[in-house]
Recover the amino acids of this structure.
């Protein structure tokens, strides 16, 4: 998938249950099942399968504690 913040095609993965809970709280959305996270080092940008830039400014999943 194309990553808007990396400006290149990068591997992405679906969000984990903890990341989905975080994104729901962060965005107040009830459904975050269609979101993916960029796996490029230091990126962690969130996008959907169809929308390269669903948030302005971009939202990045925080690193796990």
């Amino acid at each position: 998938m194309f990553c808007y913040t990396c400006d290149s095609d990068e591997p992405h993965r679906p969000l984990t249950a903890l990341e989905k809970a975080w994104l729901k709280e962060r965005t107040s959305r009830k459904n975050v099942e269609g979101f993916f996270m960029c796996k490029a080092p230091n990126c962690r940008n969130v996008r959907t399968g169809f929308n390269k830039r669903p948030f302005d400014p971009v939202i990045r999943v925080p690193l796990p504690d």
The mean pLDDT is 94.
